[in-house]
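Standup notes
- DV: blocked on the single-chain target, sequence here:
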Amino acid sequence: MNRDYLKWAALAFALVATASAEYELARAVGYNQWVAAAVPGALDVWTVRAMRQHRDVLAAVLAMIVVNALSHLVTAGLLEVSVPLVVGVSAIAPLVLYRLHAITGTDEPKADTEPVQAPVQVDTPELAPVEPVRPKLHVICGGQQPFTLDVPARPEPVRLDAEEAKAAILQAWKDGLSLAEAAQVSTRSRSYVQQVYARLDSERGSTPLALVKDEVSA
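- DV (later): unblocked, structure below
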């Protein structure tokens, strides 16, 4: 609390002065002597809380002014107790309850949360395929003059069709070639040649040895 004692002393005296009129107005509209004290109490608490929160200060002060003015008008006989007056005084407590809830809701500390940034999608350009660099050999002859010798790149094996691959795998199996050697000569994968070898081994002794045409299409 701010240690400005003169300010808080003035506030206390002002609340006491207004509380008397607010109490008398509550008694005039039908509150008993105990419940009537809740009307100035609610208004005073709302005013103090509004000043500490720096919110609703004008609304709280205007409410106290209106209530005090109505109380003095009723006491002086210039205003009769009517239905609108009773309804207005009865609405003081719910109004204060609502406004206190509204201004004290911001009194709780906010959780320290950092804003979450959405992932940024970066379009990566596609890289063009890089051709392998062919090695160049420099041959030095008797005259100390270098000559460049280009070594041609190894050509990729031509993939055999189904019939040729079938014959190549069967011949490799008969010749006892390994899986790697059979895969190379048949231009098929090693796993596929292994499956065919297993098939041929299981059919050893059966009549006749044959490969299904679809098996070598992979």
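- Follow-up: The two ends are 85 Å apart (CA to CA).
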